[in-house]
Amino acid sequence: MIALTGDIGGSRIKLALVRDGRILARRIEPAHADLPWSRRIGDLAAGWRSLCAEAGIALTSVDGLGIGFPSLVDAAHGRILDEWGKFPGCTGFDLGAWARQTLGLRLALDNDARAALLGEWRQGAGIGCDNLVMITLGTGIGTAVVMEGRLVRGGHGQAGSLGGHLTVRHGGRRCVCNNLGCAEAEASTAVLHELVRTRPEFAHSALAGVDALDYAAVFRLAAEGDACAIALRDHSLSVWSAAVVNLIHAYDPDRLIVGGGIMGSAGHILPALRQYVDAHAHTSWGRVEIVPGALGDDAALLGGYWLVGENTSA
Description:
The protein contains 9 helices and 12 strands. The protein is α/β, with parallel strands linked by helices. It has 2 domains: 2-111 and 300-313, Nucleotidyltransferase, domain 5 (2-Layer Sandwich), CATH 3.30.420.40; 125-293, 2-Layer Sandwich (Nucleotidyltransferase, domain 5), CATH 3.30.420. Strand 11, helix 8 (266-280) and strand 12 form a beta-alpha-beta unit. Helix 3 packs across helix 9 and helix 6 packs across helix 7. It is globular, with a radius of gyration of 19 Å.
């Protein structure tokens, strides 16, 4: 099977051409998520056509288009249900009709974290396990669930996908979803610039002078003893740990996969998550295995391939 796939993120867009579970060609570009969706979708079509040309594969030989999108989606009808500040005009856009008319392809659409989990389940850190949870730490916080060998979607497409919007701090920061104290509002790259400026140590911190304020800088400077970075690191680890325990209590997984761009600091993150879960998760049956994603940036791209296969066989 051959599929074109896309991982549409808040910071980056990744496109790929996949044959038999192997990526033949890929491209990564800035998301420009503030631009209208009608403008960005045309750029994506050009990108997919370019990948086909690069690999010497005719578009007519492709079996389908698999897309992971960073929002709630109506997978059955190929529609995006929420914008949440990204890609204005995407809500209600008929991606299925667009894919047929523009590329001549059948669409398989799902939430981006669910696509990433599908990739890891079939080809990565989830192989051999049919009760899985994945959390992706990045611009936002995404989650997805496999329970008893089935991807969990729910009646409205949001089951398992809103783990980043579980409340971890009562009365905390207001989130883009309008809840208070969501994990994503308390510790994600999207809010890092706001978080750092609430710290009294910030004025005298090396974080005030970094060119790119991200979690890589936070963990690096924390290791060097920067007080502001240490406070942010410890706060974020506490938030993510609480979210993970909530997910374990909600979905009863045997294994929990941690992915996303922030996992460049996995050496700091995974030990903290494991220690917190061992101390606080109620799992009388045994211990949840907490592992890093194996596929990195390719997880949702490969997941899109499996979405196409699922859609084709339906």
